[in-house]
Write a structure and sequence with these properties.
- Two copies of one chain form a homodimer.
- Chain A has three helices and ten strands; from the N terminus they run βαβββαβαβββββ.
- By secondary structure, chain A is of the alpha+beta class.
- The longest helix of chain A has 13 residues.
- The radius of gyration of chain A is 16 Å and the shape is globular.
- Chain A starts with 6 loop residues before the first strand and ends with a strand.
- At the A-B interface, strand 1, strand 3, strand 4, strand 5 and helix 3 of A face strand 1, strand 3, strand 4, strand 5 and helix 3 of B.
- Strand 5 of chain A pairs antiparallel with strand 1 of chain B.
Chain lengths: 143, 143
């Protein structure tokens, strides 16, 4: 099995709120948008985030309604500097996100970051991390 | 905010089981491996999957232990044909995964897929989807 995720699909209680946040608020462009069902956004080369109606998500997996929860995941978005952390968090808050921890220095490594929750409870870390970069081939370098 | 996820971090109850499954069973190469804490795997250009000890995950977000759950997400891995779905699922099962739905045709679009659960409850869809491809620039094309 190749070391590759092609889709990350998240159970989404309020798909309209998700669309309003990502598409209208942050200006993201859907790859496919099926009202009442799913919105796909490309979020890395070859990789798609799918926001899928939570009831249909549970039904697809043969689970009782209300099973699906996203408390055990975070998404991180890295930016080029502390100021960009600040304005990204402001843009997310303006689009309807809840700031869980304001932009501030992390515990180590010169990280400067914030945690922000989208309208469906998905937690994003917005971070500047000087020990992280992506080389010209897409390879991530850490530390 | 750019339309980009750089890290997907999942609360992982049994990190040793995760390592045994992805690294030893499937042959994935960790980007960074900190025993008892986190294992990072690169899973797309510029994008990393982090499997993070669940207790530490909850503590980091200031939540009570046992909060984090991954019932509301699936990861998909696309392959080139039905036979590759079958042998990928066999390889995952041999590495310790639980097959939730065996390889079979999907409801539409010529999809052939299976659902498999990793040792920490993360559900993977292994799929052949003739309506999906990634072009030479990393752009996903659907439908």
């Amino acid at each position: 099995m190749k070391q590759q995720v092609h889709f990350l699909t998240l159970a989404t209680a309020d798909l309209d709120a998700a669309r309003a946040f990502y598409r209208d608020g942050l200006g993201w462009e859907p790859l496919v948008d099926v009202p009442g069902e799913i919105v796909f956004f490309q979020v890395a080369p070859g990789m798609v985030l799918g926001l899928f109606d939570a009831e249909k998500f549970d039904r697809d997996l043969g689970r009782p309604p209300g099973t699906a929860g996203v408390s055990g995941l975070t998404l991180a978005h890295n930016v080029d500097g502390p100021e960009e952390v600040e304005w990204t968090v402001r843009a997310m808050a303006a689009a309807g996100a809840k700031v869980l921890t304001p932009p501030r220095p992390g515990e180590f490594g010169g990280v400067f970051h914030a945690h922000v929750e989208d309208p469906n409870g998905v937690v994003w870390e917005i971070a500047h991390n000087p020990g992280w970069h992506v080389d010209g081939t897409g390879r991530v370098v850490l530390g």
